[in-house]
Amino acid sequence: MTSRLSRSRARGATSHIAVRVAHTAFGGLVALAWLLLPTATETAAEGRPRGPYAPEGSVIRVMGPPVGEWPAAAAPGRLVVPPSADGFAAPADDSSGSDLILPVAAAGTAVAVAAYSLVRRRRRARLRTTPTGVFDPPTTPLPDLRRRARRLLVETDDSVRTSTEELGFAAARPGHGEAEAPSAGPSNRGDADGPGAGKPHADPQAPSTPDAEKPDVDEQDVDEQDVDEPEATNPTRQPGPVGPHAATPFTLDPTQPFAETPAMRDAVRPFVEALADARGELVAAFEAGQRLDEASGSLSPDEERALLEKILVRCTTAQRRLDTATPAFDQLRALEWDIAPALECAEARFRELTGRTANAATTLTALRHTYAPAASLPVTGHVEQAKDRLVFATTELNRARQSAYPGDLDTAAVHLRAAEGAIDQADLFVTGVERLSAELARATELVKEGAPYTGPDDDPLDVLRRQSRWSLPSRSAVAAAADFVTTHRAAVGVRARTRLSEAERHLALDDEAENGDHARRADSLAQEARHLAEQDVRAYGNPYGGPGGDGLSGALLGGIILGEPPDGTGRADLRGPACYGGSATRARRAMSGQF
C-alpha cells in the first residue's frame, strides 16, 4: 500500500514539472512574439506611399528660417525630384538587420533558461535532493524509543495491578450499592453548620485496630460475621486447591461477580470493563515486547521501530482508558464524603488476615517437615512479609481513624488507601502459602499414579515435571510468579513482567491436557520471570533507608506508596498511595508530609 507521504511526494514532483513546463512555454511565446512583431509592422505599412507624391519634373521648395533670425545663408534652393519609371518618387531605404537582434536574443535566453532548469532537475533527481514541499517530522532515535517503551510497560502494568486491587475494595464496601450519590447527602468536610457538622459517620469510641507489634497472636478472636469472604470480594485470587483462578490471579473477566448483590455488580461493572480493556491493551503490548526480546538482533530497524511504536500506542491507550474512568470511580467510592463503610470493611479484612497469618506460619512449618526444602521455596519469607504489611496497615488504619474523627476526610482517605494496599498484599502472601499447601497435596496424589516417587524427600511438583505432566506445575509456577511481581512491583523490571505476561498467555491457551505444550512453555516462562524478578529485587535493595520496624520499606517495595529514591540531599520523595487509574491519575491522593 502506498503511504500518504509517498503520494504527497509524487504530487509535489508532478507539480514542479508542470510549473517548469509552463515557464518554458511562456518564454517561447514571448520569443515568438518578438520575432513576428517587425514582420507584422512592415506588412501594415505596405498599404501607404513611401514618400510625398510629386509629378515628374516638379520642384519642392525647401523653406528656411525667417529672415533676420539666423545668420545670412544661401538663398533658398530648389530640390529636384528625379522622375521614376512608375511616376512615384524613389523611397528611402531605412530598414536594417539590427531590428532582429532583440527578438533573437530573447528567444536564445528563454531556450537557455529552459535547458538549465531541465539539467538541474535531472541532477537533483539523481542525487535525491529534489525538494518535494512536504515537511518530514524528525524521527525519534531507536535508543530513545526503547527507553520509553520499557518505562511505559512498567508504568502501565503497575496501573493495572493497582486498579485491580482497589476495585476489589470498592466492590466489597458494605451497602455502597444502595448508597445515595455524594452530591445528594450532606458534606462531611467541616464547612457545614451545626453541632455534628464536619464529622464522619463513625463511632468515635470505636476500638482501635490490633497492636502493630502482634498481628499474629493466636488468642485473637475474629468475628466471622464481620469478615468478608475473599472469594466474593476478589474473585481473581481464590485461595485453596488447584482451580482455574489459582494459576491466573491477574486475569480479569467483566462477567465475574465482583460484588455480592446485583446493585453492587451494576455499580462496579463499568470499572471492571475499563480494567479489562486496559488489561487487553497491556497484553498486546507485552506480546510485542516478547517478540522484540526473542528476535533481538535479527529485526531490521524499521521492524523494531514498528514494534516499539505498537508498545507505546497500546500502553497509552490502556492508561487513558483507566484515567477516563477515574472520576466516576472516585464518585462511587465517595471516601471524601463518607469514609466509615470503607474503613470498617478494611478493618474487618485486617482482623481476618491477622488470624490467617498465624495459621499460615503453622502451615509453612508443616510443609518444610513434609516435603523437600525446594517444595516450599516459592513461599519462603511470605509469613514475615505478611506481618510487615500488616504492621504498616495497622499504622495507617489508626491514622485514618484519627483523621476521620475531626472531619479531615481528605487525609483519612489517603491513609485508608495506603492501608488497603498493605492489606491486599498481606492477603497475597498468606494466600500463596495456603495455595501451595493445597497444590502439593494434590500433586502428591497425582504422582502416586505414576512412577517413580521415592517419598517425602521429593518435591511432588518436580516429579510431575519429570513425568511431563505440566498442567498443575505450570499453574503453580505462574501463580507464584504473579504474586512475587505484584508484591515487589516497585523493583521488578520490564523483562520479568514480559515473561510473566507471556506465561499467562500460554497458560490461557492450555487445553488442560497433562502434556500440553502450552503448559510446558508457561511453566518455563514463569520460572524465568521469577528468577529475573528476584534479580531485580536484589539489585534494588533498600534505597530509602528508612526504619525497619514500621513497614514503610515494604510498602515502598510493594508499590503501595509511590515515591522516588533519595536524591543527593538524602531526602526521599514520598508522594502518596497508588490508586485506581492510569499514570495521570493514580497518584491523585498524594499529600506531602503524610509518610
List the helices and strands and how they pair.
Blueprint: H1 4-45, E1 59-61, E2 78-80, H2 101-127, H3 142-172, H4 230-233, H5 244-247, H6 262-294, H7 301-333, H8 340-370, H9 382-404, H10 409-447, H11 460-466, H12 471-487, H13 494-508, H14 517-540, H15 552-557, E3 561-564, E4 573-577
Antiparallel strand pairs: 1-2, 3-4
Can you describe this structure?
The protein is built from 15 helices and four strands. It has helices at 4-45, 101-127, 142-172, 230-233, 244-247, 262-294, 301-333, 340-370, 382-404, 409-447, 460-466, 471-487, 494-508, 517-540, 552-557, and strands at residues 59-61, 78-80, 561-564, 573-577. The chain has a two-stranded antiparallel sheet with strand order 1-2. The chain has a two-stranded antiparallel sheet with strand order 3-4. Strand 3 and strand 4 (573-577) form a beta hairpin.
Name a few traits of the molecule.
single chain; 595 residues; mainly alpha; two-stranded antiparallel sheet; two-stranded antiparallel ribbon; disordered N terminus
First CA to last CA: what distance? Answer: 56 Å
Which outline best applies? Answer: elongated
Number of strands: 4
**DSSP helical segment count:** 15
Biggest beta sheet summary: 2 strands, antiparallel
Structural class: mainly alpha
Give the overall average pLDDT.
Answer: 75
What is the beta-strand fraction? under 5%
Low-confidence parts lasting 5 or more residues at pLDDT below 50?
A: 1-12, 70-81, 174-257
Q: Provide the succession of SSEs.
A: HEEHHHHHHHHHHHHHHEE
Helix amount: 55-70%
Strand order of the largest sheet: 1-2
Q: What integer value in Å does the Rg equal?
A: 45 Å
